[in-house]
Amino acid sequence: MAEQSLTKNILRKGLIGIVVGVVLVIAARLTHFPEIFQIMFFVYAMLGAFVFILLDAPSMTRLEGGKAVVGLLLFYVIISGVYIAGAGILPQYDPGIEKGKIEKLLKARRARTQQGKAEELIARAKALDEKADAITKQLASLGAGAQAVVVSSERDAAPAAASGDLVAVGKEQWELQECYNCHKLYGQGGKKRGPEMDNIGNLMTAAQLREKIIDPKSWMAEGFDKQYKKGKMPDKYKDLMFDEEIDALVAFLVSLKDASVNTPKPIKMK
Amino acid sequence: MTLRRSLLVLLGLLVTGAAVAYAQAPEAPSVDFPYAGNRTAVWFVANLHILFAAFILGAPIFAVVSEWLGYKNNDPKYDRLAKEVTKVTVILYSMTALTGGLFIFVLLGTYPDFTTWFIQHFFMVFAVIYPLLFIAETIILYTYFYTWDSLKGEKKARHIALGVLLNIVGTVTLFVIDGPTSFMNTPAESAEGMSIFETVASMNLWDKIANYSWMPLNLHRLVGNVTFGGFIAGLIAAYMYMGAKSDEERSYYDWMGFVGNLIGVGALLLLPFMGYLLAYELCDYDASICPYMMADQLSMFFEMQGAMVGLIFLASNYYIWLSMKRIQGVENVRISGLVMIAVILMPAIMGLAWKMFPPPEWQSLIFLALLVFLPPVLSKLPGLRFTVSAFTMIKVGFLMIVVADAIWMTPHGFVATQAMATEENELPSWASELALMPAKNAAAFTLVFLTVVNYILYNRAIKCGTIVWGKIDFASQFVLIFLAFSAIWTMGLMGTVRSLTRKYYHVYNLLPDFTPESFTPTLAYSAWWITGTTLVFYAVVSFAIIVTLRSTDKKASVPQGEALPAAAK
Q1: pLDDT of B19-31, one tens digit each?
Q2: Which residues of B are less than 8 Å from A115 in CB distance?
Q3: Is this prediction's ipTM beyond 0.85?
Q4: Which chain A residue shows the shortest CA-CA distance from B318?
Q5: Is the pTM of this model over 0.95?
Q6: I need a labelling partner for A7 at 20 to 30 A (CA). Which of A82, A227, B35, B87 fits?
Q7: CA–CA gap between residue B100 and residue B130 (Å, rounded)
Q8: A84: how many CB neighbours lie within 10 A of its CB?
Q9: Of chain B residues 198-257, which have a CB less than 8 A from chain A?
């Protein structure tokens, strides 16, 4: 097989790659692909050009001794760099978002474990220590008639639950348990695995919703026979959620009464 | 005033009491890995251990197959190949044990409560079954290696039987240790009227081992290990070829690289489907795992996986291309043009077929069978006998590999989680099918089919042409090294994904990880550590290859340099 010179090969294939890439970008723009996909198509065209440059490239000269070792090390540096850079270019999920979620989810659970109880005790003792120090200092610096003001930091940090806003806590549970992955609500989230939920409050009572969460096989959404048979709704929330969390989620779901959305009719199965 | 003072005294008493309780609370010294943190330290050591373990399980499969081929065909090359791979395996065996011990120490130090809990659940596995299997495997491996020269000639079959026994014990060891590993992902589904905690408490050891994802993980790792063994054999061959001083050595290691790549690619063809089976079972176990993997925090990990799989298929086919280029007479090899048309149509037809009949429905396989088997049948009919050259077919094949890669890598939206998807970064609705599983399956089958077609062409070329071993383009050695490196990197990436599917649990839905490190790390951060692990593994393997083989290669060389018709060999 005749081998073209490397430069000629690169120029020819590179030019074809650019032309194909531009055509793809124009076609993608006309068919309403966002810019990021247009760039992606161009990159694929250039990848194709690179592959065809390699296919027709002249044979490589043999490397021996020190040159082979240097060549190898350089090769490892390049592929390591390419893989790290490739992974770095892609969109990155911000762990901060998840950390907040995990903290909310695990805080209550941690408090109920032996380790959590010990740590809670230690934390309270430390807080009391600090308070005692503050009071001692206050007493020392003030006269007999002065008032020692103790501010409860715990009260300041009271979660939404303490405010009594059950629906808000339920909405938070919706987010934390990631119900949106399978159920669409307010126009957002998945809709293939489970029904849209915007009007569920008009179709099910609090008791029925609670029953469905605890035992997913107890009710089925009309038109979701396949998903029901496959057991798509996980049978885990009775184990993962505390009673008060389920109550809050139910209160939130009951409040969803947007009749303009066609939430499928629930069918009693058990 | 008196009341206030009384309250302060009471508060003081409470503080004193609490302080005493605080002082008495047991305070175990906590371990905190500098820079990396505990979770990353465990991740690094576990990944390293799994790489060595994968090699010592995959390489003996490769070795015994090679030894059997040598015995059957009376070809000493295969026997030498098997022995050299086994020699490296023996050296790396100690590294597997060493990293395994290190893994347990690090795990015990950093996560003592979880480790104790876990060991107690699988006590018989960790304290009795696994150590016994490991000891048995050690004895058989060393016996297998050290009886190589004494069990030859008429006794060769006994030696091969020993190799088979080694692989049986190795596979059982893999399956046994996969029990606890897969349990962490899919512990149990709660039984009727019981919580998951009650269900697990009532399960016996076998129930815990034979969990939802156990068999898919076994199959995935088994095939992955063979792929790994093949590519590492290719790596060994590349190193030795680069350092070879004579034509005889070069011809032997050129041949060895080809065989390593052939076995690696052969197993690689099954790997996407084994991975798919594992993912399918994980999603079936808990539907919320699926969006987490494909549309949420891990979606870009799968984007990277698509890129890696694409690169591996491109490189392995490029190696075939380079192998064919040095065959004299390859210009005369032709294939039916209908095969080329089938290859071009495959992504579209199979994408539609899988959309109409998604797995586990089987009807889509009819379309696949038609695409694969119809062209050779139809090409016998008059008027449909047009053919294309092997090089044209392979070039069209490369074009379709790029197309299949593009389909595999097209996400629904270029965002880290679909919650952030907007019109500016997601596919237009008319093209949304490109991001769904039918399209991905079609891309995977296209990649596999193309690779098979290329090997068929290679087979035809060596039957009618003349091959000179040792004269392959030097770039091919870098391709072999690239394949091994990329395969290891992908293993690290997918191992990371498998572990991360547990989210913030040590054992999914059962035992939460309360440490601050239980979040999903970014892909960029993960890539640094995966690359680090790969490089450390590479450094050790490279050292083992140089130490074990470079000193003995001159003694064991087999003359292979002369040009012979390939079929005669």
Answers
A1: 444 445 566 778 8
A2: 113, 514
A3: yes
A4: A55
A5: no
A6: A82
A7: 12
A8: 16
A9: 242-243
